[in-house]
């Protein structure tokens, strides 16, 4: 326990000295807090006001209004709630399952040769296309999105953890554990699985970023989320026809997606540099 | 080389099989059966029966699976439920637009990514390098469709330099180019950001190799070292990233095609999904997977040509 605690403090200290990590974490915190307290600080984004259609930014409507007279500020604050929640749940499912699959595949040859083939097959298929086809078959809604997103995100985690598990298997600690009679489940949990932790932490940020982008792409083309649910992708898709003069309809929801993904990418890169200096991209 | 190609092809088969089997299973798991999901609550039992017959869902499951595998081999997915035409024909009609779009974006991304990576690695940690790295980080986080909406707004709607959307056949080269410039730029520039990061890292890596110091001590100029040794060394890792980024590129193309109204595979897939046209969804997914397999095979063969060790050694 104490070993992992010191590792944790060491990692967080190192991260504290990375300006990029701080900026990224700040951006993420901003988005999360805004999404959580949106109902408290902003008007109802679904209120339609035909008299105030396409109004430019003003004190009353800081981000202007859209083609139905809805407040773009409110739409932007609310727009992340559904997609962030869906992405967080799917990433959690994908990381847990991917972790388990990766550890088992790294340790058991037979399991590896069958399951990793399936994972490779899924992984080389474009994730957006996979999501569109899965949701197309399962139908729209939150549950199909979570199922599809989890399936899409599992392979990358499984593959990275498998790599870590493969090299962990060769460690002398594993050999000595087996020599003193440790059983396979104990070896897997105590010796192999911990080697995958840092890989999984970095991969989680990448999976979250992919998830946010894919869900936004899908709601942009009108698939998945109910069109009446506020979403950044959905707001952007109605913004297309009104760019002139209502540029604010396109700018702010897009900026929200950008800030979220940028935060995740910055934190992910910094984590990679700190946790896994070998694979750092310089 | 032929043996190697066949081996790689066998290893790439799951790319087609796994997503197709997944769709096969999920279609049959739809609540109320696929026919119920398609026709809605008001459908009469006769209508459901008829649709089940058309989709081959009345046969036993093992039979359906054999038929499904057969359809993959014969490239025949039956008729689209709504467009009332053969799925393979519909897909092949759209293929050339998507292929043109993706290939042009790929070339643009490759050229831009490699040039900027060369510039950045030559001035490592200099101001130019830092600016380019900053751009790449930002480019990684920009959703392609947001960039596209903004660029359409500025360059097509305001300035009227380009058409807002649509496609012209290459028989009219000027109109064709005008319709493709914006979509290719949007897709390619973001991909270039990704390629830039990997190429720069890999160029910096090869520049710290001893053979570069040797070349320099022999009095070779920076340009000669760069062009003759460093660029060649970095080609293989760059091809790896390139192979991996094909999926992102194709996925981005699907979204941008619907936005720019390019009559390609992506648009067809979207129509199929909106109408839950199962045969058409399967057909589109199949051909997208097939494109991935062919592209990856080309990348693999390029590797083998660039590095003979891969051909004879443990090809993984």
TrEMBL record, chain A:
<feature type="domain" description="ABC transmembrane type-1">
    <location>
        <begin position="80"/>
        <end position="268"/>
    </location>
</feature>
<feature type="transmembrane region" description="Helical">
    <location>
        <begin position="21"/>
        <end position="41"/>
    </location>
</feature>
<feature type="transmembrane region" description="Helical">
    <location>
        <begin position="196"/>
        <end position="225"/>
    </location>
</feature>
<keyword id="KW-1003">Cell membrane</keyword>
<feature type="transmembrane region" description="Helical">
    <location>
        <begin position="141"/>
        <end position="161"/>
    </location>
</feature>
<dbReference type="Pfam" id="PF00528">
    <property type="entry name" value="BPD_transp_1"/>
</dbReference>
<dbReference type="InterPro" id="IPR000515">
    <property type="entry name" value="MetI-like"/>
</dbReference>
<comment type="similarity">
    <text>Belongs to the binding-protein-dependent transport system permease family.</text>
</comment>
<keyword id="KW-1133">Transmembrane helix</keyword>
<dbReference type="GO" id="GO:0055085">
    <property type="term" value="P:transmembrane transport"/>
</dbReference>
<dbReference type="GO" id="GO:0005886">
    <property type="term" value="C:plasma membrane"/>
</dbReference>
<dbReference type="InterPro" id="IPR025966">
    <property type="entry name" value="OppC_N"/>
</dbReference>
<feature type="transmembrane region" description="Helical">
    <location>
        <begin position="114"/>
        <end position="135"/>
    </location>
</feature>
<feature type="transmembrane region" description="Helical">
    <location>
        <begin position="245"/>
        <end position="271"/>
    </location>
</feature>
<dbReference type="Pfam" id="PF12911">
    <property type="entry name" value="OppC_N"/>
</dbReference>
<keyword id="KW-0812">Transmembrane</keyword>
<dbReference type="InterPro" id="IPR035906">
    <property type="entry name" value="MetI-like_sf"/>
</dbReference>
<keyword id="KW-0813">Transport</keyword>
<dbReference type="InterPro" id="IPR050366">
    <property type="entry name" value="BP-dependent_transpt_permease"/>
</dbReference>
<protein>
    <submittedName>
        <fullName>ABC transporter permease</fullName>
    </submittedName>
</protein>
<feature type="transmembrane region" description="Helical">
    <location>
        <begin position="84"/>
        <end position="107"/>
    </location>
</feature>
<keyword id="KW-0472">Membrane</keyword>
UniProtKB/TrEMBL annotation, chain B:
<dbReference type="Pfam" id="PF19300">
    <property type="entry name" value="BPD_transp_1_N"/>
</dbReference>
<dbReference type="InterPro" id="IPR000515">
    <property type="entry name" value="MetI-like"/>
</dbReference>
<dbReference type="GO" id="GO:0055085">
    <property type="term" value="P:transmembrane transport"/>
</dbReference>
<keyword id="KW-1003">Cell membrane</keyword>
<keyword id="KW-0812">Transmembrane</keyword>
<keyword id="KW-1133">Transmembrane helix</keyword>
<dbReference type="GO" id="GO:0005886">
    <property type="term" value="C:plasma membrane"/>
</dbReference>
<keyword id="KW-0813">Transport</keyword>
<feature type="transmembrane region" description="Helical">
    <location>
        <begin position="176"/>
        <end position="196"/>
    </location>
</feature>
<protein>
    <submittedName>
        <fullName>Peptide ABC transporter</fullName>
    </submittedName>
</protein>
<dbReference type="InterPro" id="IPR035906">
    <property type="entry name" value="MetI-like_sf"/>
</dbReference>
<comment type="similarity">
    <text>Belongs to the binding-protein-dependent transport system permease family.</text>
</comment>
<feature type="transmembrane region" description="Helical">
    <location>
        <begin position="131"/>
        <end position="156"/>
    </location>
</feature>
<feature type="transmembrane region" description="Helical">
    <location>
        <begin position="235"/>
        <end position="260"/>
    </location>
</feature>
<dbReference type="InterPro" id="IPR045621">
    <property type="entry name" value="BPD_transp_1_N"/>
</dbReference>
<feature type="transmembrane region" description="Helical">
    <location>
        <begin position="97"/>
        <end position="119"/>
    </location>
</feature>
<keyword id="KW-0472">Membrane</keyword>
<feature type="transmembrane region" description="Helical">
    <location>
        <begin position="280"/>
        <end position="306"/>
    </location>
</feature>
<dbReference type="Pfam" id="PF00528">
    <property type="entry name" value="BPD_transp_1"/>
</dbReference>
<feature type="domain" description="ABC transmembrane type-1">
    <location>
        <begin position="95"/>
        <end position="303"/>
    </location>
</feature>
<feature type="transmembrane region" description="Helical">
    <location>
        <begin position="9"/>
        <end position="30"/>
    </location>
</feature>
């Amino acid at each position: 326990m104490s070993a992992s605690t010191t590792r944790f403090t060491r990692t967080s200290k190192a991260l504290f000295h990375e300006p990029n990590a701080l900026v990224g974490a700040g951006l993420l915190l901003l988005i999360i807090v805004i999404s959580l307290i949106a109902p408290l600080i902003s008007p109802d984004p679904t209120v339609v006001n035909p008299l105030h259609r396409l109004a430019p930014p003003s004190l009353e409507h800081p981000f202007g209004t859209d083609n139905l007279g809805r407040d773009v500020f409110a739409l932007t604050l609310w727009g992340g709630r559904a997609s962030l929640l869906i992405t967080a749940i799917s990433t959690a499912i994908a990381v847990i399952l991917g972790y388990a699959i990766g550890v088992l595949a790294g340790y058991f040859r037979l399991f590896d040769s069958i399951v990793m083939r399936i994972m490779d097959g899924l992984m080389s298929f474009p994730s957006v296309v996979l999501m569109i086809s899965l949701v197309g078959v399962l139908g729209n809604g939150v549950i199909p999105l979570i199922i599809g997103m989890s399936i899409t995100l599992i392979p990358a985690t499984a593959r990275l953890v498998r790599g870590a598990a493969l090299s962990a298997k060769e460690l002398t600690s594993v050999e000595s554990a087996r020599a003193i009679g440790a059983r396979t489940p104990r070896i897997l949990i105590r010796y192999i699985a911990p080697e995958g932790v840092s890989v999984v932490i970095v991969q989680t940020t990448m999976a979250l970023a992919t998830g946010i982008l894919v869900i936004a792409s899908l709601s942009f083309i009108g698939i998945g989320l109910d069109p009446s649910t506020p979403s950044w992708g959905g707001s952007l898709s109605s913004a297309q026809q009104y760019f002139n003069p209502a540029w604010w309809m396109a700018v702010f929801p897009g900026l929200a997606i950008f800030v979220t993904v940028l935060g995740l990418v910055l934190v992910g890169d910094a984590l990679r540099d700190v946790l896994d200096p070998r694979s750092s991209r310089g | 080389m032929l043996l190697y190609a066949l081996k790689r092809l066998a290893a790439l088969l799951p790319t087609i099989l796994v997503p197709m089997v997944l769709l096969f299973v999920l279609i049959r798991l739809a609540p109320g059966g696929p026919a119920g999901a398609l026709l809605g609550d008001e459908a009469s039992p006769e209508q459901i029966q008829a649709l089940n017959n058309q989709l081959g869902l009345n046969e036993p499951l093992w039979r359906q699976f054999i038929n499904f595998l057969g359809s993959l081999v014969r490239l025949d997915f039956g008729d689209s439920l709504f467009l009332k035409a053969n799925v393979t024909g519909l897909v092949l009609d759209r293929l050339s637009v998507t292929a043109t779009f993706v290939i042009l974006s790929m070339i643009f991304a490759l050229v831009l990514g490699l040039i900027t990576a060369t510039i950045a690695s030559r001035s490592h940690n200099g101001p130019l390098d830092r600016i380019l790295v900053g751009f790449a980080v930002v480019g990684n986080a920009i959703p392609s469709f947001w960039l596209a909406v903004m660029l359409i707004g500025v360059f097509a709607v305001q300035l009227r330099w380009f058409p807002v959307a649509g496609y012209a056949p290459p028989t009219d080269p000027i109109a064709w180019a005008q319709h493709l410039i914006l979509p290719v730029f949007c897709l390619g520039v973001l991909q270039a950001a990704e390629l830039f990061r990997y190429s720069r890292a890999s160029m910096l890596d090869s520049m710290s190799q001893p053979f570069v110091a040797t070349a320099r001590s022999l009095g070779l100029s920076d340009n000669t070292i760069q062009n003759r040794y460093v660029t060649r060394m970095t080609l293989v890792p760059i091809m790896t990233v390139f192979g991996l980024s094909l999926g992102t590129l194709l996925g981005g193309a699907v979204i941008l095609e619907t936005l720019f109204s390019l009559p390609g595979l992506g648009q067809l897939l979207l129509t199929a999904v909106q109408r839950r046209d199962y045969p058409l969804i399967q057909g589109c997914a199949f051909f997208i997977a097939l494109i991935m397999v062919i592209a990856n095979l080309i990348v693999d063969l390029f590797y083998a040509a660039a590095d003979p060790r891969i051909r004879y050694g443990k090809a993984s």
